[in-house]
Write a structure and sequence with these properties.
With 395 residues, the protein is mainly β. It is built from 3 helices and 30 strands. The protein has 3 domains: 160 residues, Trefoil (Acidic Fibroblast Growth Factor, subunit A) (Trefoil); 190 residues, no CATH class; 34 residues, no CATH class. Strand 14 and strand 15 form a beta hairpin. The protein starts with a helix and ends with a strand.
Length: 395
């Protein structure tokens, strides 16, 4: 019994400490640098047997890139020798293979996954590195893998990135605790936050996001707007290119949520302990505060909230998920109702305010069972077909 308990505990610990491929951050490979090659499907690193044959799951094999100065091809060198491939054969790392010039083809910029192919000069083609589920080892084949063939996709993970911690932030969480940064000095963030694409969304996160990562995760045509003032009954916003930690913004997202179910941000060096509200006022003493939340919250009656590219002046309280923001009127007369938005002085940049009461409705499945009563959206329901007001809606 004691042995069984010890074995069970060991297996449990192993399960708790196993990281998935998504938990590692990949790099854009550079000549002169060393990396470990992580197979996306298996979540295991490239290793080598004593005879030089490649496999997965053993001692991690460090691979150094050297530029061949021939149309972007590289040699991949290990402490055993060069990585090389053969036609329809097993690649090796002891220098005995025939083809040792490799091309690195970016498949997904969002999570830095690559296809790795050895140039076959005779066949004027490439032999692509992949993990064979059938043979349980690493092979090459002439068909270049696409994004769906994860057995043939790899991440280049540096020594520093092996120690990167992964922080998951979920919009459905009831609480937020400021994450700490470990000894590596940086973290990778997995952000579980749903957006309405090709539409404006309120947004606030406890870490800074540079412009290049915003484009990589939210699309090349992403736009960011910050609250900057009030003009009459118009709320003024100004464009910017990045995100500051803790501050509320409007973001226009053009890219669908990744298949992994979260957005990935790398190199995060600090997290805010709490949101930073932004307040603006006009000459009449009227003020408006853009209030943020890192966890689920309640937008109070009278607040302005953004939904489906429209802004609603709430006539009753409304529950909202995390990493969003609301506009709350200050201590002025309270008589003013804001009726328009301006982005960089253009009042057509964002839709007008809808001051009517938030519409509520019952949601049914196709079998007629009620799933939600007095709902305001389908946000918390999985993708599928629903009946709302007698009509079929597909999410």
């Amino acid at each position: 019994m004691k042995k069984l308990f010890t074995l069970t505990l060991a297996l449990l610990c192993a399960c708790l400490t196993t990281l998935r491929a998504a938990d590692y951050t990949g790099s854009a490979p550079e000549a002169g640098k060393a990396y470990y090659l992580l197979n996306v499907q298996k979540g295991e690193f490239l290793s080598a047997a004593a005879d030089g044959n490649l496999s997965l799951g053993g001692a991690k094999l460090s691979v150094t890139l050297s530029d061949k100065n021939s149309d972007g091809y590289y040699t991949l060198t290990t402490d055993k020798g060069k990585l090389a491939a053969s036609l329809w054969g097993k690649p090796t790392c002891d220098g005995t293979g025939k083809y040792d010039e490799w091309t690195l083809s970016l498949v997904s910029s969002a999570d830095q996954t690559y296809a790795i192919g050895a140039r076959s000069k005779e066949a004027s083609s490439a032999q692509w590195l992949f993990y064979s589920q059938l043979l349980q080892d690493v092979r090459t084949e002439p068909l270049k893998p696409g994004e769906a063939f994860k057995q043939g996709l790899w991440k280049f993970v540096s020594e520093d990135q092996l120690n990167d911690q992964v922080v998951t932030l979920d919009e459905t969480s009831e609480t937020y605790t400021q994450p700490s940064i470990g000894t590596s000095g940086s973290a990778t963030v997995h952000l579980k936050r749903t957006f309405t694409t090709n539409s404006w969304n309120s947004f606030c996160v406890p870490f800074a996001i540079p412009a290049d990562q915003l484009k990589a995760q939210f699309g090349d045509n992403v736009h960011v707007a910050e609250l900057t003032g009030l003009t009459g009954t118009t709320i003024d916003f100004t464009s910017r290119s990045d995100i500051e930690a803790g501050k509320p913004y409007l973001v226009y997202v053009t890219k669908e949520t990744p298949t992994a179910g979260y957005y990935t941000f790398t190199g995060v060096t600090s997290f805010a302990s709490q949101p930073t509200d932004v307040t603006v006022s006009d000459d009449e003493g009227e003020s408006l505060t853009f209030k943020s939340n890192f966890q689920k919250a309640t937008a109070q009656k009278g607040a302005y909230v953004l939904r489906n590219n429209k802004v609603y002046h709430l006539q009753s309280d409304m529950a909202i998920k995390g990493f969003r923001a609301m506009l709350v009127q200050g201590n002025g007369s309270g008589a003013k109702v804001f009726s328009a938005w301006a982005l960089d002085g253009n009042t057509t940049g964002i839709g007008n305010v809808n001051a009517s009461t938030t519409t509520r409705f019952d949601v049914y499945n196709v079998s007629g069972q009620m799933l939600r009563h007095a709902a305001t959206s389908l946000d918390d329901l999985p993708h599928g077909v629903y009946i709302v007001n007698g009509k079929k809606l597909t999410k």
